[in-house]
Amino acid sequence: MSSGLSLRPAGDRAVLVELEDNDAVHRLAAALESRRGGELEEIVPGHQTLLLVWADQMPSQDAAAQMVDAAAGNDAELAAPPEVTLRVRYDGPDLEAVAAGCGISPEALATRHQACEYRAGFIGFSPGFAYLLGGDPTLQPPRLTEPRTRVPAGSLAIAGPYSAVYPRQSPGGWNLIGSCEASIFDPALGSPALLAAGTIVRFVSE
Amino acid sequence: MSGSFEVLKPGALTTVQDLGRPGFAHLGIPRSGAADRGSLRLANRLVGNDEAAAALECTLIGPSLRLSSEAVIAVTGAPTAVRVNGEEMAINAAINVPAGATVEIGTAERALRSYLAVAGGVEVAAVMGSRSTDLLSGLGPMQLKAGDVVELGSPTGAAPPIGAAPVAPPAQEPLLQVTRGPRADWFDDEALGRLTSTLWEVSNDSNRSGVRLIGEQLNRVRRDELLSEGMAHGAIQVPPSGQPIILLADHPTTGGYPVIAVVCSNDLDAAGQLRPGQRLRFALS
Prior knowledge:
Chain A is α+β, with helices and mostly antiparallel strands.
């Protein structure tokens, strides 16, 4: 059961649900998905939160809490998350520095990085930019002190507990360890984001 | 009959906006759309369009356009001079424009964003259900530049039912209602009081993603890093500088700065009209 979920007010049309971990975020998002569209306009996963945004009037805080509790308490089998394997090259400009910082060779870093199974925890920063969780705890370099003004599209990057592939050219402060040719975001597609929140992601060296 | 317009001068920042593309925040796509939706709706009503039709959002200094055919237009939002073939016209009113006429939108006298609707609507290609330019994500048409020719849709028929709308001028010093935000407890005891007692100034470094404010420092008591979480339109987030930012239409969908308060829905349009250098206050509702 779910009682004890914490709901924080987020304006007169939204509420922020705090959850114990990212898996719980995906479970609740999936349980609420059938209600999205219409009055419940947005369901936005965060690392350990789910933001619910209503189009106009939101229900009372109590009614919102009841809705969330009912969804969280629904133990129905959820569909298996989609899985994506990305072919990458470990050839990024920060590869050597990150490997040195971790006390390992670039080859060992590549091996460790692709040994993990990742999950798209949430999307942010730019359309389709998935924050991938589940990386090796020994590979957690801090962000760059000076962000780059131009990171090429398809850059494979790591920072703290996250990995990501930049969907398009943008500024960025993460460590670039490789590159990937897959199209990560295409607004012309019915499912524009390749790595929607919840997706299981694996990396394979080319 | 549908027509087109040619951009003679683009103005400071003129974009196509409708009511945005809701429902994609989980993919990292903000709603976007007019920063002042009420003014966009009014402009559309005045020319007989559906309220959700696409129009031009002009920022501070408006564009000059030449219309290919006879058209009905209206300008709403930030008060500004409107000239048709050099003749001054009223804002918040339907204007009949002859074929080939030049329409000039001047500099906003106060507030920031004026809306120019044309009967039939601006007919650029829709991306994910909307014609809005999202400057943060790079979705939708580019901002207008000189020489662009932009297609217009066919007017839906009947003459506009209203000729002019009474509109109160935007406040010199708006008072925006806010509610306590999801992370108000990350700040010290004085922070909420400071938010509502300070006369804030709008920074030049503001855009369609957010309005940056200059004033008192809002201090955090929790120094740990906030895990990224979903951000609502109107959220007032506080970066380490302690100077708050109100998130507008093109705001990032998730963020890691704590949100101390959120602007109420009824005041989001006023937030979208805040002009660099202008002052404002918040009240806790």
